[in-house]
Amino acid sequence: MTKRLVVVTAGLGKPSSTRLLADRLATATGRRAEADIQVIELRELANDIAQNMVTGFPSPRLRDAVDAVTSADGLIAVTPVFTGSYSGLFKSFFDVIDKEALAGLPVLIAATGGTARHSLVLEHAMRPLFAYLRAVVVPTAVYAASEDWASDGAGALAGRVDRAASELAALLGARPDRPLGDSNGPEEPGRPADVDDMAVVPFAQQLAALAVEG
Amino acid sequence: MQFGIFTVGDVTTDPTTGRTPSERDRIKAMVAIALKAEEVGLDVFATGEHHNPPFVPSSPTTMLGYVAARTERLILSTSTTLITTNDPVKIAEDFAMLHQLADGRVDLMMGRGNTGPVYPWFGKDIREGIPLAVENYALLHKLWREESVDWAGRFRTPLQSFTSTPRPLDGVPPFVWHGSIRSPEIAEQAAYYGDGFFANNIFWPKDHFKRLIGLYRDRFAHYGHGTPEQAIVGLGGQVFMRKNSQDAVREFRPYFDNAPVYGHGPSLEEFTEQTPLTVGSPQEVIEKTLSFRESFGDYQRQLFLMDHAGLPLKTVLEQLDILGEQVVPVLREEFAMGRPAQVPDGPTHEALVARRDQDAKDAADIAADPQEVQA
């Protein structure tokens, strides 16, 4: 069965080396597993993300992007390294997603930077972020410095891309079933209902938990 | 269907003049706005409750008592009364006193309050917000319905043979709404008691509230209070009007752009597209408000936020004139059209008393002749 692979890239340039790395990872994964690939460029959502921070609710197109990520079978998340860590835009996107919504999601993490000196951002910032969200991060994380783009096809980057893609492809069917909640809202087949945010404990049970008499 | 206004009670600098009203100015302005609401034919005035600057209304029944003495018809309400941090015994007493003084023109809306630091000032913890709302309201509900209350719970000292005085007018408690922005637990609570549910939809998109109100309506029916269509729903809305739409936008934009709750985020245009905020002509306000019925079903109470974003009192009073003269009369007519007969009107004391008496009469009839009723 075809899986849904979503790529989130926080590159800002046009063209962007972050997007380039994201595309290589997506293509390599797509070669190993049958997957529909959707790319989300956070640059295009920068205003929507900032506004969600202020208002507390997503614009329709940000909501679509968040829904795509939370309902995916696999995620490739790629950020440029800014000031020693993932970019603020990258972090902000994941800040506006419900912290339960990525549980069990297989994730391939990758980053780009000017030099290889920052490559541990993947292990010291990206991996803990997704661990907090209880996503399943594949063992191989891919870092591409400027010098890697100059290496030939047999170089280290291509090898790491292939290894990481194999690891993600193997997990694409592994995400546990998510609850299909909310019998009140419109059902959209194939999409887990909004983290069943309308699920409710029957009132008698809420009262009983407090042991209020009468 | 009832129409009214609700006020947050914020002291906000007018961004066009740099002038900040004093607390006294703001309190008097809130009263002037309430009196104006009655003058222009609105049904309800509701005040917020806050315990931190820049807000003034920490003592709603004091203000509402004063307004009650100067009005004849206006229903006095809250938006909201903090059921988490107030002692439910004091809420029962304060609002029963107001209920008596105002000849029954009182209802109230329960809310939790979302400002973490306020809770410990009253000896509470925001992490217990929902359990506090559940337990405290269970006690309040009992205090207004039982003369002698024995009670024990997690959050306050027990009561034995306690009678809350005065009793509500005519022995019929004030109608209660439960206000919520995002919590399905509160929709469930409102449904359980057959109380009203006020979806404060002013800052969020309608899809969310469609689901929240849908949940409330379903659960209202589940608990045997009537059909989903008979559930008692209130909605918010916020508007700024001028005769010409462009004038409204030009005048309101600096207020929007700088207001603590609106500003520095989405543009005015984006915000009006996604939330109930309407900045335009009276006709645009009418159209937007009528669209609420399409989204949420026939409902009972529409409250508008009018004194927002630091608008000066003079402007707010002009807005209320427009609302009362040009908008609400049309809305009353339009909402009445095609409204199913079984959908209840907005709650009033008289209606609650009549229902109580009818229920008593029905019970007596059944006791007198059970066969006939079964047939």
- Count of folded domains of chain A: 2
H/E element sequence of chain B = EHEHEEHEHHEEEHEHEEHHEHEHHH
| Shape annotation of chain A | globular
The tally of beta strands of chain A, per DSSP, is 7
What's the overall average pLDDT of chain B, rounded? 95
* Biggest interface, residues from each chain: A-B, 27 and 37 residues
Uncertain residue ranges of chain B = none
Radius of gyration of chain B: 21 Å
Quickly name the level 1 CATH class of the largest domain in chain A.
Alpha Beta
Query: Widest sheet of chain B: strand order?
Result: 3-2-1-13-10-9-8-5-4
- The separation of the N and C termini of chain B measures 35 Å
The secondary-structure element order of chain A is EHEHHEEHEHEEHHH
Span from first to last CA of chain A? 54 Å
Largest sheet of chain A: 7 strands, mixed
Tell me the number of strands of chain B.
13
Protein structure class of chain A: alpha/beta
> What percentage of amino acids of chain A are in beta strands?
15-25%
Question: Which CATH architecture of the largest domain in chain B?
Answer: Alpha-Beta Barrel
Detail the poorly predicted runs of chain A: 179-195
Describe the protein.
The complex is a heterodimer of chains A (214) and B (375). Chain A is an alpha/beta fold and 214 residues long. Chain A folds into 2 domains: 3-178, Flavodoxin domain (Rossmann fold, 3-Layer(aba) Sandwich); 182-214, no CATH class. Helix content of chain A is 40%, strand content 18%. Chain A contains 8 helices and 7 strands. In chain A, α1 packs across α7. Chain A is globular. In chain A, 42% of the residues are buried. In chain B, α10 packs across α11 (313-336). Chain B has 375 residues and is of the alpha/beta class. Chain B has 2 domains: 2-346, Luciferase-like domain (TIM Barrel, Alpha-Beta Barrel); 347-375. Chain B starts with a strand and ends with a helix. The interface between A and B is medium-sized, with 27 and 37 residues.
